[in-house]
Fold:
Amino acid sequence: MYLVQLKEINFSYENGPSVLDGLDFVLQDHDRIAITGPNGTGKTTLFHIILGLIRPSAGEIHAFGKKMEDDNDFSECRSRAGLLFQDPDDQLFCPSVMEDVAFGPLNQGKSHNEAREIAEKTLRSLGLWHIRDRAPYHLSGGEKRLAALATILSMQPEILLLDEPTAGLAPEASEKLLAILDTYPARALVAISHDRLFLDALSAKRLVLKDGRLHS
Amino acid sequence: MTCERLAAGTSTLHTTDPRVKLCLAFILSVTIALLEGCPAQFAALAAGFLLVCWARLPVRETAGRLVAINFFLFLVAAVVPFTTPGVTAFSFLSLPVTWQGIELALSVWLKCNAIAAVNIAFLATSTIFSLAHALAHLKVPSKLVQLFFFSWRYIHILEEELGRIRTAASLRGFRPSTSLHTYRTLAWMTGALLIKGFERGERVYMAMRCRGFNGTFWLLSHFHFHARDGVIAAAGIVASLALLIMDNRTRCILFN
Ligand SMILES: Nc1ncnc2c1ncn2[C@@H]1O[C@H](COP(=O)(O)OP(=O)(O)O)[C@@H](O)[C@H]1O
Ligand SMILES: [Mg+2]
Structure:
């Protein structure tokens, strides 16, 4: 069974040229996939389609053995597949890092105490415990990226979708990110990235997005 | 964040239950708006001033906000004495100024400043997030709470984008002056600001949906209604009543 399967997806933004054109994609257990491709080819768009944040004009999306039809289907999917946004500033909006990390678990129906425990565990394992009370928008670039990752990992997703996770990070920060990803028990991982070192370390299968489709 | 700069403090007012603060801000604002005589209005302004002192807010920032309000009040206060009918007090540039007009201008000025001070003391001492949370607790319809929260969130985003655009322009040597070039650049900057702000807002909303946002505002440190909050609530209500009673006794002694 596939974790995620996209069939014949077509998509274009309003009044824009076609971005995805008959795109097929499958993700299986234990897959580690890297997606590359020039800027503006629709990689970010592809992630947003997998989570139902935008809807394709044609095609089918299956996730976790279920055909995705409406927002209810997708909201379960969003809780089981964590998306790290390209820009961490988009992802952090609570008054403190701690609250941001606890926001997802609370939405998943965890009690305040459970959410607090999960947030604490996540922050400690990412080495962010000392900045738990800081305002997210005042962190450094590397800290922001890790804090954004923490907000996702605290929801304990089975799949990780990472949109250019090492862009703008210093080498040490990238290594730290890799170490964290290595210990996180994800069933599958997809990363959009151009960072050779990062992709080599992930030992991911490479796909290239070109002309609206994925090529190996 | 500009509008939350006063929220970082440790005074008693900062740590008071935001639900109590919201209710008191509302009750006192309505009370002050109802006051008719100057003595009670003076008392209200004094009370507001004391509250602001009690919250130990940074003086410059607080004064800055009051100056902004008073700029608009000045426009009103400058016109009203001339346009209110009544007994002429004196003439200015051969235009009659009335006692009633002076009283009205004074009363508008006193009330507005008192209400502003009360709201700075009670509302600016909470983060927007906890105010949204408190509103939800007070059974304000969820749609209104979301409207409130997102207005703030998007204004903040616009503010950030404006900062970035400004930096980008000044790094390339842009100095505003009164020239066509300046106006054209400002127009482009405004356009860029709106589009970038809108797009960022969309993405923030997407990120919130990814984390299961469904309209609920969680606050990790949940509100606890302490005995102290009860005392503050009671004191606020007593103060409102005292102002109303005082107003009733002393109304209009100044000018008639
Ligand atoms: N909200 C949007 N509205 C209109 N066009 C967009 C929007 N977002 C992206 N695009 C366009 O769609 C194309 C694909 O964008 P994106 O998925 O972000 O590319 P990538 O992540 O591969 O760099 C680009 O040409 C971009 O300009
Ligand atoms: Mg992208």
About this structure: The interface with chain A takes residues 1, 4, 127, 129-130, 153, 160, 200, 203-204, 206-214, 216, 218-220, 222 of chain B (CB under 8 Å). Chain B has two domains: 2-126+224-255, 140-210.
